[in-house]
Amino acid sequence: MPTMPTLVLVGHGMVGQRFLEALAERGLTDTHRVVVLCEEPRPAYDRVRLTSYFSGRTPDELSLTDAEFIARHGIELHLGDPAEHIDRATRTVTARSGLQVTYDALVLATGSYPFVPPVPGKDATGCFVYRTIEDLLAIEEYAKEHATTGAVVGGGLLGLEAAGALRGLGLDTHVVEFAPRLMPVQVDEGGGAALLRTITGLGLSVHTGVGTQEIVADGEGGAVRAMKLSDGSELATDLVVFSAGVRPRDQLARDMGLAVGERGGIAVDERCRTSDPAVYAIGECAQAVDGRVYGLVAPGYEMAQTVAAALASEDGQFTGADLSTKLKLLGVDVASFGDAHGAADGCLDVVYSDSRSGTYKKLVVGPEGELLGGILVGDADAYATLRALTGSVPPVAPEQLVLPAGAGAPVALGPEALPGDAVICSCHNVTKEVIQAHATLPEVKKCTKAGTGCGSCVKLIGRLLPQSGDKGLCGCFPHTRAELYEIVRVKRIASYADLLDAHGRDGARGGEGCEVCKPAVGSIIASLAPTIGAEGHVLDGEQAALQDTNDHFLANLQKNGSYSVVPRIPGGEVTPEKLIVIGEVARDFGLYTKITGGQRIDLFGARVEQLPLIWARLVDAGFESGHAYGKALRTVKSCVGQTWCRYGVQDSVRMAIGLELRYRGLRAPHKLKSAVSGCGRECAEAQSKDFGVIATANGWNLYVGGNGGATPRHADLLAQDLSDTELVRLIDRFLMFYIRTADRLERTASWLERIEGGLGHVRDVVVHDSLGLCDELEALMADHVAHYRDEWADTLDDPERLERFVSFVNAPDTPDPLVRFVPERDQIKPDLPLLSIGSRPLEGSLTS
Predict the structure, then answer these.
(1) How far apart are CA 247 and CA 462, in angstroms?
(2) Which pLDDT belongs to residue 548?
(3) Which of 198, 154, 197, 149 is nearest to 175 (CA)?
């Protein structure tokens, strides 16, 4: 076979990953060898949301890279191995490791680096920059042991993000900005004043109009203890973060003789080609034809699309981009769009300011009444609509667009006010008419990527989608998930194919469905299996093809392609004999062992072919599937209750075990978590669960609709002082009503807030039987309880099901060579650099 041309991408940030996706969308990963050289030790992650790490989001949750995507497209990703030399004459890239790759096309996506002012003491211990996850980890570690006060040099976007991070670490925080106001690029004097009032009200100290003259440290190479400012003052601080802007990383281009801009940045044409036609540059390292180096992700995405189009011989140019941006800094909404500072001739300002509420709104209007741009601080809800109207004359007077409700403002402009070619998602350049060609938000995100960037357009996209007409689950079905549940239940349809043929949209019938509706319908059929006479096992027949990734192997897929094993431990209660078995299994299979927050033991690092062997030993010891992989009940956490605790008033362990065994395996629109506390001290944290139980002297209180995570919600009290029988009956009804009416992937918390009538309506239905459904709901739950079987025990008894547990279909005894580990703290961890080198599949092999 002829050798495929080689494409080398240098850099794997947000823009680099978007470029890879654009290649895959055009089929270029099938026709090219794609090699990626990445300096950081981890693949692309969401740098825009970097500060969310300090509010609980993990590095894995920030990741933008799906290991399965890398492997599926045969992309060779080399982490921690940047390009160090490029020979244009031989078209060869040499990486730090010594790896040499000859390219047919080279794309530079090296991004930018933090600018550190050349002040004395800038290299002292305790000085950091704020750019990468590793920077954040270093700041966090240092702050824990050595700092009570922190100072940020720079009051722009990243500076305020860094200040929010230091504040989140519990440090007294200062912001030092040389300009006379915060965020001088994005907001004007009025907006800066509003922002300043709000931020100082949060307890931060802001110093504007002064520069940093020196970092004072304890001796040569000692730790930071103060900053000297240009006004002669000295600021005591233990930690300094430099966030005074960024500069394009163009040194590699300079070394290879490419043209660069006067103020930096690799010079490119409208096709993002450099002065060498075989070399392209995208993102923050590139200077566009308009002379700008764009420091926002949206223009970088557009550049990525432009280069992918060029490589595919398609039309496409990048001549400039929208600089609009919307962020939430320290809890304050800040947005700017268009000609925010009114640089156009003859423009006029329309301003609304309320210093009491910290709200500032300014619109820039042209001589003919056209909206040119604006600034919003404190209230940016109208940002997406206003940005989309930029360049046109709004349908109402501009002052009505900034006034608050009740002060002369009309009802908020609806999406009908926007022209069809209005750009709704600037990150991915998606227009209103393109969005309205789809039925649901998941479909929009999948097909257009709108709403998957900064996220500021998601609300407006929701308003553009059908509100009262077509509320279909996806493009395959015109029905909601709740309506499909009723169709399956009433008509006893036990097959996805039959449901699609009978109730799918025209054009979808007889087809294969999509990734939105297949797992949703699979869950519905599984939850109703005893009632409708369907095959109950998720690996049987058609059901197997409907499941999400984890359900295919009854285990949680981990980032390096291995799986985790989570046996059920009801209520956290386990005998010494069972503990010994878990220890022996972990030891014999070399698994990483961790006690989870749900009072279970998780065993990580199992290869797919090891799963049946591991579960055979666990099932023999009396364990069963913990359903950590499914949209089902996970755990019912408990405190020790009155049996051991001197404060306990009920036996919480007994109740937790009973509830977990009753609802185990219950398939639902999303995962379910529960807890039982033995008294009002709430040690089991029941009010942060989908359904939680707290003991009283007279029985049990039932709380519903809580969750933790990124958007925590306290559960609401549904009923109180219940007997054991009353409690179980109400939980039966609540869970089946939720399963029956919730949307796809909707937790009980968001369902309770969305459903018409909220908690009051749910209470009327499940407590007072206002709809006459309770007998039916109880019967559905009784069917589930009566027909429950352990999925892993059944799998082990079925040779056909066991055939799927191989890494390679045509080499069943061959383990996946990419699943590797290294030792850490007497256990194992994924060998991340090796793991992420997604080389092409072995010749002649077919992965399962």
Answers:
(1) 37
(2) 65
(3) 154
Three-state DSSP class for 217?
strand
What are the φ and ψ backbone dihedral angles of 351, each rounded to 5 degrees? -125, 135
Quote the distance between the C-alpha of residue 12 and its chain's center. 18
SS3 of residue 444 by DSSP: helix
Q: What is the pLDDT of residues 504-541, one digit of tens each?
A: 887 777 777 777 888 889 889 988 888 887 766 777 76
First CA to last CA distance, the chain? 25
**Quick check: 568 and 623 in contact, CB under 8 A?**
yes
Place of tokens 């939105």: 516
| Closest by CA position to 525, among listed 536, 540, 512, 517 | 536
**Angstrom distance (rounded) from CA 677 to CA 637:** 8
Sign of CA dihedral 505, 506, 510, 511: negative
Could you tell me the pLDDT band of residue 73, with boundaries at 50, 70 and 90? very high
Strands 33-37 and 6-10: parallel
pLDDT above 70 covers what percent of the chain? Answer: 92
pLDDT digits (tens, 9 = 90+) for 822-831: 888 889 888 8
Residue type, 686: A
0.90 exceeded by pTM: no
44, 330 Cβ separation under 8 angstroms: no
- Quickly list H helices, 646-757: 652-663, 724-741, 748-754
Of 668, 634, 632, nearest to 740 by C-alpha is 668
> Is-contact 102 5, C-beta < 8 A?
no
Looking at residue 713, the DSSP 8-state letter turns out to be B
Yes or no: say if 215 and 121 are a contact pair by the CB < 8 Å rule: yes
- In this structure, what is the dihedral angle of CA atoms 247, 253, 254, 255, given to the nearest 10 degrees? 130
Say how far apart CA 283 and CA 91 lie, in whole Å. Answer: 22
Closest-CA residue to 207 (of 168, 163, 166): 163
Q: Can you give the C-alpha Rg of the chain in angstroms?
A: 29
How far apart CA 358 and CA 378 sit, in angstroms, is: 6
Strand order in the sheet with 672-677: 633-638, 672-677, 691-696, 699-704, 716-722
DSSP string, 155-179: -SHHHHHHHHHHHHTT-EEEEEESS
CA–CA gap between residue 250 and residue 109 (Å, rounded): 10
Q: In a 10 Å sphere around its CB, with 0-12 CB exposed, 13-18 middle and 19+ buried, how is residue 317 labelled?
A: middle
